[in-house]
Amino acid sequence: MKSKWYFVFFLFPACFFAELSIDKMSIQGNQFLLTVRTYPPSGFNPFSFLQGGSTLWVGYNILVFKKQNFPEPDIFLTNICVRYEVKRDYLNNGYVANVWYGWDFAYRRWLDNDEKLLRFLYRLENFRAFTFSNPGENDFFYLEVSQFFDTVPEKDDTPLGRFFRSVIGSRYEFSPVRSRMFNKNGLLFE
Prior knowledge:
Helices cover 8% and strands 56% of the residues. The longest helix has 9 residues. It is elongated and about 55 Å long. A 6-stranded antiparallel sheet has the order 7-6-5-4-9-10. Strands 1-2-3-8 form a 4-stranded antiparallel sheet. Strands 11-12 form a two-stranded antiparallel ribbon. About 6% of the residues have low confidence. The chain has one domain: Sandwich (Immunoglobulin-like), CATH 2.60.40. The protein is mostly beta strands.
């Protein structure tokens, strides 16, 4: 199952065209697995974030909703955040990536070249988004996934917030992509 959405970015000084897609959704036992891919615009250069010893944050925000019947609003179940903190390793000529699930440190990964770094940044493969806990036969769910690229200021007291960093080109946020509805058996519905 693959759903594609296209977005146009209006940023200084040019427009960018990008694609964020949910490539695969699967259920193994009571766990829901997800694969997301990013197809960045041609003018987008993630290596520019790392210039001057800056740290690059790349994050995926995954929102899980339970579908309700009209006129009731859908129920927000959980928010999963996967974040990579990438820094250039000049000594070993590579990159060091710290992976965080929410605010909890998960693991550290070392990448030895630019191609492996791009693959790591643009693909979230077989990520366990959540675990089902006693869903009913008529319970349906859907996801909204978004991604961001951000530089981490060297000082905490920087006057540049998220908005101003996006204006000067040091923060990019991809609009959310919504999945098709599914139930605990993995059946997909429109």
